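AhpC/TSA family protein: structure tokens wanted.
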Amino acid sequence: MALNTPVCDFGWQAVDFELADTSGAQHNLSTLRGANGLLLMFICNHCPYVKAIIDRICRDARELQSFGIGVAAIMSNDPVEYPEDSFDNMVRVARDLEFPFPYLHDPTQEVARSYGAICTPDFFGFNRDLALQYRGRLDASGRMPAPPDARRELVEAMRLVAATGEGPAQQTASIGCSIKWRH
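Answer:
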């Protein structure tokens, strides 16, 4: 079932966590944040919405990092029900796609719950003070990629956050598969 993310709760403070990435390194907000902000993305391996944009996510992450934005992805799905989202597959996907950001494993799903993550992909863009400024979509892509010349909404928003500390007032919700919660 496809879900849309809620409207941005401007100023909501990022919740700290401690998660391992696919190489076993531990990360928290202080190790992930950049000088001008932080982008956290809840993604997974199996979702067709994520698969449609994963190359664009990697491209945009590299660009945002050049503007002082830290970037990380978090996988919170239940791998028992969705084996494609297993940790071993996370390692493979991160390696094969050469992720330019840490791919974090949330095995207890506590981080997804504390952030109110709804779907994959779900983007949380924070300013340098770790106050939420963006909860929109990457671009106009859905289950299929948008045209190559589609407006790069996430990049535009996070460049604004890097420059001014504030995100755009108008944001279009992300759409994707629901987080696969444990029963």
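The radius of gyration is 15 Å. The helical segments are 29-32, 48-65, 87-96, 110-115, 153-164.

Cheers.
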